[in-house]
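Sample entry (107 residues):
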Amino acid sequence: MAVRVDNIIAYIEKNYATDISLEDMAAVACSSKYHFCRNFKKITGYGPYEYLVKYRINKAKSLLKETDISVGEIAEYVGFGSTSNFIQTFKKLEGLTPLKYRNYWKE
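Predicted structure, serialized as tokens:
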């Protein structure tokens, strides 16, 4: 299963900006959704969707630090369906809004 998890992680890293479903990830792993989720979490410590969201947020953090792209454009670029969902998720995981995060690094 480790090779398959590596394949899934590579798949996420290549396609994180698209609408990836659990079914898509399980298909890449050649496994049922249930079996895939259980093994992915056992190996990585994260559920597959949780891993995807964290990956997207980390990409967004880099863009916030290194560019002046708007928060809305970054949300779209990293695969969030809406800016408000991106802001809520970012704040939940990082403890501050994307704009405050950017301003922290610009000071």
